[in-house]
Amino acid sequence: MAKLLERARRRRKSSKRRIQAELKRRKTEEKWKAKACKRISHGNQLPPSNDTRTSSSTKSPSRKALKQQANLVKTYTKYDNGPDHSKEIHLENCKEYQKVIHATLKNRVFEQTKMDDYKALIGGKGLVPTGLIASDMKARYCLGKHMIEAIDELHHRKQSDDDLNVYLVTFVDERFNVNIRDGVVEGYMLKDKVYNAIKSHTAMSALAFVENQVMVNYPKGSEGEVMCIHVHTVVWGYDQDDVKRLLTKTRGFKSNITKLPVHCVKMHPTEGSFSRVARYLAKPPYEGKEVDYRKYDEGKPCLFPARRVEKYQHLRLFEYMAKTPIDKMIFSVREGKLIRQKILSDLKAWHRKRKGTRIDTSNVDGLFERFYVDNGKLKRYRPMRVRW
Questions:
Q1: In whole angstroms, how far apart are CA 192 and each of 213, 222, 302, 342?
Q2: 290 near 304, Cβ under 8 Å?
Q3: Are 135 and 361 contacting, i.e. CB atoms less than 8 angstroms apart?
């Protein structure tokens, strides 16, 4: 009897230790998730594993799981190794986005349109859209490549000039949010608002990108999620008070989720940090955002990378980009105008020399109108209107 009681006591202790280890592991994962929405220039490392289970008691991870883990490590590395490394990652991101959109369009109905029309919009093999549009991933890669080179030149300038200040500034205004089912993207109004804020309150130069992203579970309990249009801007100058004026005097931007509608991070001249920011600005928006409502109610940082973006959400983002000319999503202030002109000039020269079958994409609005007529399952969604 005594031996049985001793064995039961040991089992209870062992079970208690396992529970404590599991709780510790979960707390560590929660801390890591909270850090995932911090500054883009500082990144995050994956948390150390506190899993006490031995290899004999767990199954070996599948090839798919290993690939997902490798992608996760890439996403949260602290800095890129340099401009060439940033270009490689950007190329992989563009290729991945092509696969995502191809999977989104697969099994759709094409009666009044052709699948090749949409393949051309994403820069599919052997197909070339007539215009330079944001959904063309080959053009997007070329854009990112030139962007990385331009920001790397700014990096070298910063290294030789300690007085130069460089910042990554993000502008968010929820009044420009669009319901995913039906809405109008007022891109030109947000561009003008950001441009006037930088021009009026600072003497700094800037190069800015307009981006759109799906909030996969926001707002809570509403019909249709929100697409959040916002602006990422690299600004540089010599007056340290410029950023203070930008943050304190800029009016009219509002965000209930981020609490900071104008968010500023100083960029440090570490090798690979500037090129990583350039890659971040030029990336395709295939990753959504997710709100943790428990943290939202507590007033804590609550915005995290989405665990899953649905196919219809990818489709709406794809439609938005197909209706967005690349030269409209980039704007600049002061010295940034010369950089923008050079990037677009090089991009247009590359586009003229592209080989492949040219597909007329001048009437993208009509293309998507016919697409929604053919696909009755998407009857809740109306063609998106994008104004530039």
A1: 20, 30, 29, 22
A2: yes
A3: no
CA angle 320-180-291, nearest 5°?
A: 110
The mean per-residue pLDDT over the stretch 163-182 comes to 94
Q: Which two tokens stand for residue 219?
A: 């707002």
pLDDT band at 43 (very low <50, low <70, confident <90, very high): very low
Q: How many residues does the chain have?
A: 388
Q: What tokens appear for 374 in the block?
A: 């053919």
pLDDT at 171 over 80: yes
Q: CB neighbours of 261 closer than 8 A, spacing ≥ 6?
A: 171, 172, 173, 253, 254, 255
Q: Give the residue-averaged pLDDT of 170-193.
A: 94
What region, left, alpha or beta, does residue 272 occupy, with left being phi > 0 and alpha being psi -120 to 50 degrees? left
> Tens digit of pLDDT for each residue in 87-108?
999 999 999 999 999 999 999 9
With contact defined as beta carbons under 8 Å apart, do 140 and 340 qualify? Answer: no
Phi, psi at residue 151, to the nearest 5°?
-70, -30
Q: Are 146 and 207 in contact (CB under 8 A)?
A: no
Q: Does residue 219 have a cis bond before it (omega within 30 degrees)?
A: yes
| Alpha carbon distance 160, 180 (integer Å) | 46
Strands (E) across the chain are located at 127-129, 165-172, 178-179, 184-186, 205-215, 226-237, 262-266, 289-291, 303-305, 330-333, 357-359, 385-387
| Interacting residues of 193 by C-beta distance below 8 A, sequence separation 6+ | 171, 173, 252, 253
Question: How confident is the model over 348-374, as pLDDT tens digits?
Answer: 999 999 999 999 999 999 999 999 999
Q: What pTM was computed for the model?
A: 0.79
Closest residue by Cα to residue 213 from 250, 174, 252 = 174
Per-residue pLDDT reduced to its tens digit, 198-233: 999 999 999 999 999 999 999 888 788 999 999 999
How far is the C-alpha of 35 from the C-alpha of 136, rounded, in Å? Answer: 32
DSSP reduced 3-state for 65: helix
3-state secondary structure of 382: coil
Round to whole Å and give the CA distance between 141 and 136. Answer: 9
